[in-house]
Amino acid sequence: MALLLMFVTLLHLITLAMLFIATMEKTWWVWDDSKLSDLWYNCRLDNSTETWLCTSTKETVWLHAVQVLMVLSVVFSAVSFFVFLGQLLTMSKGGLFYFTGLCQVFAGLTDFSAALIYTLHNKDILWDSQKLFSGYFGYCFILAWVCVPLLLCSGIIYIHLHKKE
Structure pTM? Predict the structure, then answer.
């Protein structure tokens, strides 16, 4: 039981870190090594100073939806972790971690929705940027998709997990 508990806790922390990185980093869309776009900024590398010059992304309805859903996913996962820690200390023997599991499932569903919207509407989100056919999805976008099954699996594990002494 202790091994399962450590595994679930580690999985939760890993997915929370991956979600945070996917939400805050600069590589949701990449044109080349010197031009990137994320949920918050469009950046280009200034070769003379070797610094990133970033401007705010143009606000679109789809971009706002992705931003809100990714932030909600991070919040649901963080709340889930803190509730889990509280339940470990206060829950009676044999109790189930329903609330923790539901928060993780909601985090997975909001992450799924955000990644799906970005996938389907990246032309609308990046409409003012360079031509899309010359770019590709970045690692933060891939991290968001990888988090979906991990969050859903950990949520299901939490729902079935019993507290033992």
Answer: 0.86
